[in-house]
Structure formats: C-alpha cells, structure tokens
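Input/output pair, single chain:
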Amino acid sequence: MSDRKGGMGGYDIWYSKKDSTGAWIRAINLGKAVNTKFDEIAPFVHVNNKNLFFASNGLPGFGGFDIYVSEKDEGQWQAPKNMGAPLNDFEDQYSFVVTSDGLNAFYSREEGRTKSKIYRTNIPKEMQVRSRGNVVRGIVTDSKTKLTLQAQVELFDLKTNQRISVFNSDSVNGQYLTVIPGQSEYALHVAEPGYLFYSLHFNYEEKDQDQPLTIDIALQPIVKNAMTVLNNIFFDFNQSEIKPRSLSELDEVVKFLNGNPKIKVEISGHTDNVGDENYNQQLSLKRAQSVVNYFTSKGIDAARLTQIGLGSKKPIKPNDSEENRQINRRIEFRVIN
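Output:
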C-alpha cells in the first residue's frame, strides 16, 4: 500500500512484477475496481493468486476499516465484497490472512484507542475461496552422490505460459517448498548448472489437490545417456502438432541447450499400446520431429539433435489403466554425446 502520487486518494493498493531479468518493474495502481479516495490497507493475496483480501474505510461497510475480498477473473480484479458481520463491525479490522485451504483466517481488531488483538475465525462456506492452493515440498539432490543441491525452481502456469515464481532450494539441506494455485495446469522446472533439468506436471484445472505433496527430486549430472521426461509437452489425440501450453517447457529446454552448447541430444516419442503398432511408431516419430523443429526454429543447430519414434516399445508403466497409458504417452530427452 502507498499514498504516493498518481493514486485514487489516501492509501491505495499497488502492485509490481519482476521482469525476465528478475528486476522489479515500476509499481502500478490496482485501480478503481479496488481503490477509493479514502484508504485501502493491509493487502493479502491468497496462495491461489485469485483472491485479494484487504481493509478499507472507503467502501460501504459497518464503519471504520472493514475486511473485503476481491476475486481475479481473466486477469482483472472484480468489485470487492464486504466479508460481513460478525467479522466486521464499527471498530477497525485489518491484516486479514487466510489459510491455504481457505477455511480459516487470522486478523487484527482494534479494541479501544490504545490496543488491538489478533483473532482467529472460521470462514463461512459461502465466503470461502473457490480455488485452493496446494503445498509441494521436497529435497533436491545429486542422483549419483545423494548430496543436496541448491537448484533453481520455477513454477509456470501452462494456460498463460507465465512464470509465477522462481526461487532456489536451500543451500544447506536442499529443501524446497512452493505453493501451487488451483484452477489451472502448472509446470515445475528444476535446474542447476552441470545437471540435466527436471520437470513436473500438476493439473488442478478441474479439481484442487486436498493434501500437501512431498516430491524429492534427484538431478542427473550431464553425462552420456542421462535422460529425462519432458512432462509438459502436449499433443491432441492422434495429432503431432504441439499444443500452446507446451511452450514454457520447450523454452526451458532451449535455455538448457544454449547453456550447454557442446552436447548432442536424442528426442524420442512414445505412445501407449492402443492401436496399430506401426501407426503408433509413425505418430511418435512425427511428434519427436515437431519438438526438434521447435528447437531449430529457436536457433539450435540441427546437427545437435536426433529424433526417433519408439511407439509403445518402451513403456514406463503397465498399459493397464488410462492413467498409466497417459504416462506412457511422452517425449523423452537423452544426452548422446
């Protein structure tokens, strides 16, 4: 919050983003949808990145500072809603912090002119966030030595191909922790110089994850035959054209190849066992070729790239369920020199 020039009046809520270099851009006022000519203070963005809670004395309420919530829809913050009684009353309420599951909150309430208290409250079902974030944690290690690593971890929203967060695992114990918002698909990329990158896929578009996840990540040193699955490259059924939500993963691979200009790699396509094997082999080859074509379009020397199609010959799961068949339909990346 700030009362700098260029606002609506009083204290307004502003925001800033980091650019591709990691530098903060100039702060931008959140606008008339949230701010008034009076004061908006103590903003809190829920881990789902879709709900903004704040206190205001300029919106219709019970008097003094009340707690309001605004929901982001298609990138725009909507008109705030008063959280209502008994949470709000004629005293000042502010610093409203909501738990990741959206069920509870902590806030500060003034009680007289000289003191305030911190309260915990249950949030009524009709006021709970519709999208809940989920916590993913684990340890990053070297797959050979088992020593912990300080690796870079990036989280991308695949629907927008936008990076949501970037941070490093702990330099001492290799631990990482991130919160994944709901109602979309996400890619988690882990990278460290001298190691093959690693990616994970989370689909919370239809259903949020109820329990925190623990996923330990073992990075492979860049040596011959080191291999990883590109978990965030997608194709329509029976098609070889790359879907747009694959771009953040592909660009991460391009960054890796540019950072390791001497290595040569093999891109292999794989299918499940449904259908004719000869057809599956041809389809897997076309998909691998599509990936290679993307890399060369970004300036990667074609002499460094080889593509093969293996159809259903090398499953990594039994083809006995749709979930396993989906895992078997994949693109792999292998160092060959």
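The chain is about 10% helix and 35% strand. The chain has a mean pLDDT of 92.
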